[in-house]
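CORE FACILITY INTAKE
Project code: CF-77B
Contact: R.S. (postdoc)
Sample description: multi-component assembly, two entities in total
Requested service: structural model of the whole complex
Turnaround: standard
Below are the sequence entries exactly as provided by the requester. Do not edit them.
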Amino acid sequence: MKKILVIDDEAIVRTSCERTLVPEGYELRLATNGREGIAFMEKEQFSLVLLDLKMPDMDGIEVLNKINTTWPDTKVVMITGYSTVDTAVQALRLGAYNFIEKPFTPDTLLGAVKEAFEK
Amino acid sequence: MKNIFSHPEKSIAAKLIIATGLLIVVVSFIFWYATLKKQEKDVMSIALTYGDSFVKFTKRSTRHSMLTYNSEETQGVLETLGTPEGVQRVRIYNHQGNVLFSSNLKNVGTPVDRTSLACTSCHSDLGKSAALIPDPVKWSVHKDEKGSTSLKMVSEIPNEPDCYNASCHVHPREQEVLGFVEADLSLALLDEALFKQGLALTVYVIVFVLAVSMFLGIINYKIVTHPVHKLSKGMERVAGGDLDYSVQINSVDEIGVLASTFNSMIKDLKAARDQREKWTQTLEDEIAKKTEEIRKTHVNLVQTEKLASLGRMAAGVAHEINNPLTGVVTFAHLLKKGFAPDSPQAQDLDIIIEQSERCSKIIKNLLTFARATPSEKGSVSINDVLNRTVFMVQNQEKFHHIKFNVVLENSQFIIVGDSSQFQQIFLNMFINAADAMGGRGSIHVATRSATEEGKPYVEIEFTDEGTGIKPEDMPKLFEPFFTTKPVGKGTGLGLSVSHGIVKHFGGNIKVKSEVGKGTSFFVRLPLQEK
């Protein structure tokens, strides 16, 4: 089962992911913040997490650390704005699998997800 | 100080004049009094001499008639002697005081007053005839009924052989004094003479006192009052701040010395004041300079802060816009899948996607310029970076028709920093120059050493042959989002970001521009002191 968790505080970003990935056969869970995302992960198992870097309450890097330590098999692709490229690079160093920049096209997203599942 | 001149009686001159005047008056009065007394004494002594002579003359004139006991003749002589003016009365009386003969016949036979000079001059006590005054004064002066002085002279007639041997036997031999001759003489004429002399003397003294006082006053005014007045006027002027004034007193006395000392004091004061004013001016200039520096620093600080907050705001806004853009792009793509690729709907959606991507690009640029990059610091050679940037832009299409004239000073110009930041500045300058020239012309690039406030700087010049900058645009040049380029061509951030970077390194950017001729930018960056 290709199960993906999207953690983003922006509804439009979550919807974009859903509308792009669900028709391609992926099963999605949508979380509006880091805490909610962690709660999902404690109940279900995910192969991939699409994680927004900048969120209120709990930061993307924090969530990434938690995922890395608790569920090391789950891959994380960071979603980032251009201004936080440096942070994205830092995220890669911390163990994120990849990152995509906002605004992304459906093709970019799909490409990144496919790549993550292939390897 | 003014009071002395409004109250002249309080001045030194007045005091001196009053003091000397008083002295002269007192001395003159003593002189006047003494002279009058002396004259009186002299006149009296002359009067006495004449009086004495008159008495003696009376005695001689009557001697014969007395010896012959011819009473009528004696009375006749006395009446004759009493005729001249000045002789008031001549009398002869015996020792008992009975008047025997008189120039005035009515007196004959009357007794003499016991208190009269004839008795009291010899007898201290008439009861004891033996008590005689040893040195009798035989004259007296008194005022008569008319108020004029009159001299009374008394002379005794002593007994002598001719008398007691005379045939009449009136006088015994033992009798010492036979009688007295008494003469009353008027001194009215002498009184008048004395009065006239006294008057003349008084007038003389008064004239003398007045003349001396006046003379003293004039002298005093000339050598004291006038010059002191001048001095005090000078002091008033000086006190009022007029230090160009000098007192004109050329005398060689104490006041002259005082005046010249005063003048040299004014000169010193003036010199001191000029010096002080010069210092004050220098200080004011210094303060004005520092104030201007502080103001400039403050303006720069505000500008920097403005830029920084604008950058933060831009970054936040840009980041937020990325989220809705993601939605727009995704859904445009999803929608497009429902139409044939050649359909007008698909073409419309392509425009939406294209424009969204344009928005995305604008945001990228904005963020590139606004973000504070944690840069890789190292020693950077400004000449190397310049050369690299020139080489890079020369291969761009935008610069194909632009000639580069590069004159770099043969020096390393090392600055510790991030080379990409300097490259960004230079790139901005080249892009602006190319835009200003419409893509054709030549850009002059030069580096040279400069010094600011004793510290070494490198100055990088960028001169174009473009349209120039309008004077009214000059103040806004470094403001974010200010641009003269057509919409979509410039973000208005190039110069403000460059300015921010240069400021960060402690440098500055100066601009010289002439509309229609071109613009020169001078970027100065501080070098590390060796």
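Facility notes:
- Chain B has eleven helices and twelve strands.
- The interface with chain A takes residues 315, 318-319, 322-331, 333-334, 353, 356, 360, 363-364, 367-368, 371, 373-374 of chain B (CB under 8 Å).
Invoice: internal transfer
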